[in-house]
Write a sequence for this structure.
């Protein structure tokens, strides 16, 4: 099954980063399981991602909503945003690669979400609240790298904001069927081999379910 990898690490090509290593684990397993299938990798820090700003998406949304003509730059932003949305909707299996920077997702990850969380496209408003539109068996795996440990119900567990944020966006607001988390956690306090061994086992445990 065609799968989209969304890499939100600023240094996405660094083979020493745990985000990169997590992605490689996923890619290797995918290739072994589906040698004839396509894997699309979107490096957010190697892609022009329109941002919410006065001259950016705010201006585009305002003019599109009122039927005003876009400037050349605004039309370019609109095309880029629509292309990201179309790519997103075309892949029912996705892997979101996210390092944890200061307890949260990267800035480019937030900008990407701003382009795909679109009313009338991936969710809709109703009188009883918003409803997700991505309900046709869309699934996502979060590949999260963090310096501390967050899954032990310890001090840092309440502050695993990337997982909390992305789960809410994907499951609660867009209606994805499944949200899995594979963690390379404790990278600053545990040995690399131990961290990656656990991540590989966790990926093995959910991979078949993710693609069923």
């Amino acid at each position: 099954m065609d799968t989209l990898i969304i890499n939100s690490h600023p240094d996405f090509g660094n083979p020493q980063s745990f985000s990169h290593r997590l992605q490689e684990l996923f890619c290797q397993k995918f290739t072994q399981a589906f040698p004839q299938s396509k894997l699309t990798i979107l490096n957010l820090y190697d892609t022009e991602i329109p941002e919410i700003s006065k001259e950016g998406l705010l201006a585009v949304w305002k003019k599109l909503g009122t039927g005003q003509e876009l400037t050349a730059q605004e039309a370019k932003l609109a095309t880029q945003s629509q292309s990201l949305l179309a790519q997103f909707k075309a892949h029912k299996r996705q892997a979101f690669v996210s390092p944890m920077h200061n307890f949260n997702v990267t800035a480019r990850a937030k900008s990407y979400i701003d382009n795909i969380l679109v009313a009338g496209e991936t969710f809709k408003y109703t009188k009883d609240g918003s409803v997700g539109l991505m309900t046709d068996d869309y699934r996502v795996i979060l590949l999260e790298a963090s310096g501390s440990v967050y899954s032990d119900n310890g001090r840092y567990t309440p502050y695993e904001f990337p997982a909390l944020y992305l789960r809410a966006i994907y499951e609660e607001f867009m209606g994805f069927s499944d949200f899995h988390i594979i963690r390379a956690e404790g990278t600053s306090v545990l040995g690399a081999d131990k961290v990656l061994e656990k991540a590989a086992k966790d990926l093995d445990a959910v991979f078949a379910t993710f693609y069923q």
Q: What stands out?
A: The mean pLDDT is 96. The chain has six helices and seven strands. The longest strand covers residues 139-146.
